[in-house]
């Protein structure tokens, strides 16, 4: 019978018959045809809950099948249709499909013939899937029993691989029930540990060598599972494997779970001497926690020479615990979104304002709140603080105050969105979303002049660090002004976002025409200033450019794209210098939707790049390498503003009103094992530290380094600082 006739009869059978052909007659014709398509149609009919008259014919025809292709067709329908009729046929007739592996395994189990299955990898994977996910509890039980009864070493190796590499609970149970172990001693040790056969593990790996080697080659998922077993059982075997003979390079690779497990296991076992040795080699961020445990234990080192170091380090750990290494989280009253941050030129005053129209002022370095100023009934979008005067601008106008007593000096009822103070501190340059750029006296706020040749609202305003130039984007393109005069220097047919080189000789933006359409390909344009000549176009981003920044030394341009990457470019050549994928370091908390970077900033020493995302993540990278600095920090909601201080601190604000202040240089070294810290590096941190209470962390690092270098060991490479030092956990 031709295929088209089979399809027509199958449709008639499915619809319950036609005016000329009854379901029984259609089923009979399909039974006589005997093709694969006909068998499939009969199996579908038998699987239907409502019998239109074709079930009996289909049942008799299927029971007589002896062709493997026809059996495969019926088994395939059975595999995705829950039907007691088909179940009965498979079981009574002993059908076993020839392919695919999953259907073959499922039919063999239903037919009660697991011995007919091979022990190849696909069959084992199919049995694991059935035992784990099948809707039929009887099949799940048969699959689990079949796995545990596998007799060949090849099949058992596949089960062990699924248990170790995939973490399959079904495979772990089968390996335990069947007594399976891999041939390789290292993997055998891992499986015995994962299945908590700890006596057998101890006999095999009495010195921890096998588990230590396996741990070094394991992926993060396997390492996390090993740590979970160690935490549950409280065994020191794992702690020895992770910390015994661990070089500084390997200690820095330990995860949060592994540090927590090592700490909990040693504390639970009362191994205080081992905890002390681990604390001396650990990164300062973990040393603080270990030292606090030691301080609470009442234990003291036996050698009197060590007690002075012990007491000093425990005391420093307590001080560090009161000053988080990721900086204080300031939460001004009200909890409204912060839109503007400002730091005074001397780095001694920090101000933040936002949607509630209130400006909160803190003194630095002690991070002490000085006052809260009710700036306006509208949103504060820009702040300048300098020379004892603070000016805030926003939707309700622009106002100045004297910081000493909070007295209001002047109020201007003109909507202003962006403020830039001139290099000599005598004039204020302002941009606006609904008015023209203007020049004002500082601090009196008397308007000196209004800029001409301006079209529409102004956005993406940037200025050179010395504030000799300012650039902004209006409806028709980019405008560049000289400061403090406010004289228009150039008009460029480009688009935002914008970034100005520190010397004012280069402007970065996105290509555009007049009027400029939004960038679609993620291209970046470079223009020479003051000529406005286009000097390059950088390509690489797949999504729109969300923000740009240039390092204070003018050597690198950083760009963020909507596709989730941050790219580095050498200046002035525009050559690619690196690509950072922000998705490579997953965040361990849920902060909201959107991983898109909306803010970029670079520390004053050009050593660290900071990115703030819509989901509240704050990520840092070392420059120019692009290496990440520890785990991301969080602000619980969208990062709305970033600022840097002259001393190398970073300030970030969020849509929820929180403000965080931290120093990337200290944070990066707090995650570095003590053996890789050098005296000169600690001294550099000391010279740049003083704000946000992070001084105790430098004190701790200095004491740890001094203890390791008390004999003035010559260090060839300060980045390594010392040879790898083993930590021996004594019996």
Task: Report what the structure shows.
Keywords: WD repeat. Residues 513-520, 585-593 and 711-731 have low confidence and may be disordered. 36% of the residues lie in helices and 24% in strands. The longest helix is centred in the middle third of the chain and has 18 residues, at 304-321. The chain contains 24 helices and 32 strands. Helix 8 (121-133) packs across helix 10 (153-166).
Present the secondary structure layout.
Elements: H1 3-14, H2 23-33, H3 36-47, H4 55-63, H5 68-80, H6 84-93, H7 101-110, H8 121-133, H9 137-148, H10 153-166, H11 169-178, H12 185-194, H13 198-204, H14 209-217, H15 220-233, H16 236-243, H17 248-251, H18 256-269, H19 272-281, H20 284-297, H21 304-321, E1 329-330, E2 338-343, E3 349-354, E4 358-363, E5 368-374, E6 380-386, E7 389-394, E8 397-402, E9 407-412, E10 418-421, E11 427-431, E12 438-441, E13 447-450, E14 459-463, E15 469-474, E16 477-482, E17 488-492, E18 494-500, E19 506-511, E20 524-528, E21 534-538, E22 545-550, E23 556-561, E24 565-570, E25 576-581, E26 597-602, E27 608-613, E28 617-622, E29 633-634, E30 639-644, E31 650-654, E32 659-662, H22 664-670, H23 679-688, H24 695-708
Antiparallel strand pairs: 1-32, 2-3, 3-4, 4-5, 6-7, 7-8, 8-9, 10-11, 11-12, 12-13, 14-15, 15-16, 16-17, 18-19, 19-20, 20-21, 22-23, 23-24, 24-25, 26-27, 27-28, 28-29, 30-31, 31-32
Helix pairs in contact: 1-2, 1-3, 2-3, 2-4, 3-4, 3-5, 7-8, 8-9, 8-10, 9-11, 10-11, 12-13, 12-14, 14-16, 15-18, 16-18, 19-20, 20-21, 21-24, 23-24
């Amino acid at each position: 019978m031709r295929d088209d006739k089979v399809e027509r009869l199958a449709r008639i059978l499915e619809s319950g018959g036609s005016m000329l052909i009854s379901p029984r007659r259609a089923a009979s014709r399909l039974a006589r045809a005997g093709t694969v398509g006909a068998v499939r149609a009969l199996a579908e009919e038998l699987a239907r809950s409502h019998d239109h008259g074709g079930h009996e014919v289909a049942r008799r025809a299927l029971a007589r099948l002896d062709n493997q292709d026809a059996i495969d067709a019926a088994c395939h329908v059975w595999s995705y249709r829950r039907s007691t009729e088909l179940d009965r046929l498979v079981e009574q007739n002993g059908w076993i499909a020839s392919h695919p592996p999953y259907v073959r395994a499922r039919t063999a189990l239903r037919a009660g013939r697991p011995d007919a299955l091979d022990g190849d990898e696909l069959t084992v994977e199919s049995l694991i899937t059935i035992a784990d996910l099948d809707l039929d509890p009887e099949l799940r039980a048969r699959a689990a029993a079949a796995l545990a009864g596998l007799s060949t070493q090849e099949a058992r190796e596949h089960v062990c691989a699924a248990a170790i590499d995939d973490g399959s609970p079904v495979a772990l149970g089968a390996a335990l029930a069947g007594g399976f172990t891999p041939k390789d001693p290292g993997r055998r040790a891992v499986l015995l540990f994962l299945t908590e056969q700890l006596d057998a593990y101890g006999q095999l790996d009495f010195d921890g060598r096998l588990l230590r080697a396996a741990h070094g080659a394991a992926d993060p998922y396997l390492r996390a599972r090993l740590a979970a077993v160690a935490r549950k059982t409280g065994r020191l075997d794992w702690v020895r494997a992770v910390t015994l003979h661990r070089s500084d390079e390997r200690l820095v690779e330990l995860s949060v779970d592994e540090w927590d497990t090592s700490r909990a296991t040693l504390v639970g076992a009362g191994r205080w001497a081992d905890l002390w040795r681990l604390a001396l080699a650990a990164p300062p961020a973990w040393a603080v926690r270990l030292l606090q445990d030691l301080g609470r234990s009442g234990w003291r080192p036996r050698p009197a020479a060590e007690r002075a170091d012990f007491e000093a380090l425990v005391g420093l750990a307590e001080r560090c615990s009161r000053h988080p290494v990721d900086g204080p989280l300031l939460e001004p009253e009200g909890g409204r979104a912060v839109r503007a941050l400002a730091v005074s030129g001397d780095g001694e005053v920090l101000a933040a304002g936002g949607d509630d129209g209130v400006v909160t002022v803190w003194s630095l370095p002690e991070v002490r709140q000085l006052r809260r100023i009710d700036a306006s009934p509208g949103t504060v979008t820009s702040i300048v603080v300098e020379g004892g005067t603070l000016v805030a601008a926003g939707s309700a106008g622009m106002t100045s105050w004297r910081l000493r007593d909070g007295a209001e000096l002047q109020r201007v009822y003109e909507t202003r969105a962006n403020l830039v103070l001139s290099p000599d501190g005598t004039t204020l340059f302002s941009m606006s979303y609904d008015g023209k750029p203007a020049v004002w006296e500082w601090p009196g706020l008397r308007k000196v002049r209004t800029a001409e040749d301006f079209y529409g609202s102004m956005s993406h305003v940037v200025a050179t660090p010395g504030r000799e130039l300012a650039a902004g984007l209006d409806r028709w393109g980019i405008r560049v002004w000289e400061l403090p005069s406010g004289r228009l220097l150039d008009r460029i047919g480009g688009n935002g976002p914008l970034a100005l080189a520190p010397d004012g000789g280069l402007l970065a933006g996105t290509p555009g025409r007049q009027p400029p359409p939004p960038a679609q390909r993620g291209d970046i344009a470079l223009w020479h200033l003051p000529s406005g000549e286009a000097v390059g176009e950088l390509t690489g981003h797949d999504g729109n450019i969300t923000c740009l920044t240039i390092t204070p030394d003018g050597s690198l341009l950083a760009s963020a794209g909507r596709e989730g990457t941050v790219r580095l470019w050498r200046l002035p050549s525009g050559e690619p210098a690196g690509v950072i994928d922000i998705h490579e370091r997953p965040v361990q908390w849920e902060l909201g939707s959107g991983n898109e970077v909306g803010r970029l900033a670079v520390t004053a020493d050009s050593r660290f790049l900071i990115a703030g995302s819509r989901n509240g993540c704050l990520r840092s990278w070392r420059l120019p390498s692009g290496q990440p600095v520890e785990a991301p920090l969080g602000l619980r909601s969208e990062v709305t503003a970033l600022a840097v201080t002259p001393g190398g601190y970073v300030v970030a604000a969020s849509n929820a009103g929180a403000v965080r202040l931290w120093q990337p240089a200290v944070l990066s070294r707090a995650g570095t094992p003590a053996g890789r810290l050098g005296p000169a590096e600690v001294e550099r941190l000391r010279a740049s530290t003083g704000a946000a209470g992070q001084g105790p962390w430098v004190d701790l690092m200095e004491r740890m380094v001094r203890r390791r270098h008390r004999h003035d060991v010559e260090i060839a490479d300060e980045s390594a600082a010392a040879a790898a030092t083993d930590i021996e956990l004594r019996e």
